[in-house]
Design a protein that fits this description.
Layout (H helix, E strand, L loop, with lengths): L13 E7 L24 H17 L3 E7 L14 E4 L3 E4 L5 H4 L4 H10 L4 E4 L12 H4 E4 L4 E5 L6 H11 L2 E5 L16 E3 L4 E3 L7 H13 L4 E3 L2 H5 L6 E5 L2 E7 H6 L2 H8 L3 E5 L2 H4 L10 E2 L7
Parallel strand pairs: 1-2, 4-5, 7-8, 10-11, 13-14
Antiparallel strand pairs: 1-15, 3-4, 6-7, 9-10, 12-13
């Protein structure tokens, strides 16, 4: 197996994670998140706390810098999914996003933004959260899967991804939007794009059959293949096991693909071989957190900023 270890703008070497002290499945968001396996709001704090603790430690063992924040609030059940309310970008840019559900809006926190300003070169913070008053939402790198190499944003049509907010973000951050419709095997709209696809430096993982329009399906696959980036097609069953909810990171010995053990176990040997040609796969055990409808990608906010020295 040949692993390409060079730097890539797609793969951040630092991340932000939030460790929950009071974790429950968010019953408010279950209305449009078919990936939630239960709407039971039982306290799962101990299990979720241990899962994030172990996941962060494994990432650090691989040489990824993990900025680990604590979440003590009982009114922020989804605080572990920090990638939805902010993102970072080359050129010192930070975006803060408008979220659909009131319980999720409480996850935004100034101490994370101040840490980024203090430890990295931040030139501008663009805050879109005021759009919530108009019922306009764009839930960060849940709504958007960003190709930092080709400067493209992939986004599934949903109530959580408003075309007005998406167009504004793409204009201000210099990305081309590619918007499409997608449904799961039961006919439900996909709520977040990052459960459907993962874009890495040398490949993409996509639940191709979930993309509704055949023309758009071909266009998206062709974009990657023309650039020499093979598409690993994921089945509906694999998407339901969070196989698309992965993120490429840069560790001390090269690039890795962080994904859940649930997702890893759903991949075929051929898929693992294709992915393993450019990254090392790092399965993380987070089954409790996955009950809330998100997996590894949702728990990781990549830091695409230059470190201060």
């Amino acid at each position: 197996m040949t692993v390409r270890s060079e730097f890539s703008v797609q793969a951040p070497s630092a991340v932000v994670m939030v460790r929950p002290h009071h974790f429950t499945v968010n019953t408010e968001t279950g209305a449009d998140n078919s990936f939630q396996t239960t709407n039971d709001a039982n306290d799962l704090s101990g299990l979720a706390y241990a899962e994030i603790t172990r996941a962060a430690a494994l990432l650090e063992e691989q040489g990824v810098t993990v900025h680990l924040f604590e979440s003590y609030g009982r009114d922020v059940p989804d605080s572990v999914f920090s990638n939805n309310w902010f993102s970072t970008h080359a050129g010192g840019l930070v975006a803060i996003y408008p979220l659909k559900f009131p319980s999720r809006r409480r996850e935004r926190r100034s101490d994370i933004i101040e840490m980024l300003k203090g430890q990295y070169r931040v030139q501008q913070v663009v805050d879109y959260s005021g759009l919530e008053a108009d019922g306009v939402f764009l839930e960060g790198t849940g709504s958007m899967v960003i190709d930092h190499i080709d400067r493209v944003v992939y986004a599934v049509n949903s109530d959580r991804t408003d075309p007005i907010a998406l167009a504004r973000f793409c204009t201000q951050f210099s990305f081309e939007p590619v918007v499409f419709s997608a449904k799961d095997s039961r006919g439900f709209d996909i709520y977040h794009t990052n459960v459907l696809m993962c874009v890495a430096t040398n490949f993409a993982m996509i639940g191709v059959d979930m993309i509704a329009e055949s023309g758009t399906r071909r266009e998206i696959v062709n974009r990657f293949e023309r650039a020499g980036r093979p598409v690993v097609g994921l089945t509906n069953a694999q998407i339901e096991k969070f196989a698309g909810n992965a993120i490429e990171l840069l560790g001390g010995d090269g690039r890795i693909l962080a994904l859940s053990n649930t997702a890893f176990s759903a991949l075929t040997a051929d898929q693992i071989n294709i992915i393993g040609e450019s990254v090392r796969l790092l399965p993380l055990e987070i089954p409790t957190i996955e009950r809330a409808g998100g997996s590894v990608r949702c728990t990781i906010a990549g830091v695409h900023l230059v470190r201060r020295y």
